[in-house]
Amino acid sequence: MNPTMISQFFAYIQMQEKNIFYFGELQKVFNISSQQEKDLLSNLSRRGMIIRLKRGVYLVPQKIPPGGKWQPDSLYLISQFMKVIGAKYYIGGLYAFHHYGLTNQLVNEITIYNDRLSGKKRLGNLNIQLIKIASPKIGEPVTLSFKEKEQVNISRLSRTILDAIKDWSRFNTLPTAFEWIKNNIQDYGFLSELVNDTIMYGNMSSKRRIGYFLYKQTHDKKLVEPILKKLTASKSWLPLDPQGGTKGLTKKEWRIIDNVHN
Predict the structure, then answer these.
(1) pTM
(2) Distance of CA 237 to the CA centre of its chain
(3) CA separation (Å) from 116 to 54, 87, 110, 133, 135?
(4) How far out from the chain centre does Cα 93 lie?
(5) Each residue of 185-234: pLDDT tens digit?
(6) Cα angle at 49 between 43 and 54, to 5 degrees?
(7) What does the pLDDT average to over 18-45?
(8) Residue 150 to residues 69, 73, 111: CA-CA distances in angstroms?
(9) ∠155-160-162 over CA atoms, to 5°?
(10) Could you tell me which residues are beta bridge partners of residue 249?
């Protein structure tokens, strides 16, 4: 790759004060062909000097990165990627579990619930898992502010635990998530939010599991009554712990087999 062209590219980026670069800009500025621009951007991306967000769109540093490779902060990278694809979203999964101190497990992949894309993607060295859900199901996440006045969305604690129960097979979080509820059982604000989130965003299985477990821990009929009213009639029995077998006390009102002994 022509070192002069690299220097010219970053000088242009710095002059324009850009962080997002779109394919097509360099052809007139540098008087080069479409193929030459494509080759330049592909090489810069392959070398790790810029990051391809999607076809024809790149996240760029303001100067040539030290050592020739650039990997920005994960939250910054996610915030810019979400802007580019125009998604409503929130970060959930293991990153959220770790953020709220629910687990010490290392985060090697960031899960993003959003209304645009589904699947796995790699942004530089960052692995992300995109889970597409309907826009109204995004709800109202927490906004985290970080350096350079950037912001990123993360699920609230109650929504984080709901997703851990609703999406347990993805994260392997049952029966552990029930312990997370127990650890917050004295916080009525949390319980109220968990009930509301379960009603708004839970599926029928998570409604039955969360509603029953909350009643088991609190014996507060008034607390769980809103969830109970949302249940549809079912002839099947649902184990509280989906991996704990089918032996346990049966709770007819919730159609739950209580196989969690705590």
Answers:
(1) 0.93
(2) 31
(3) 13, 6, 16, 8, 9
(4) 6
(5) 999 999 999 999 999 999 999 999 999 999 999 999 999 999 999 999 99
(6) 70
(7) 92
(8) 22, 11, 19
(9) 130
(10) 258
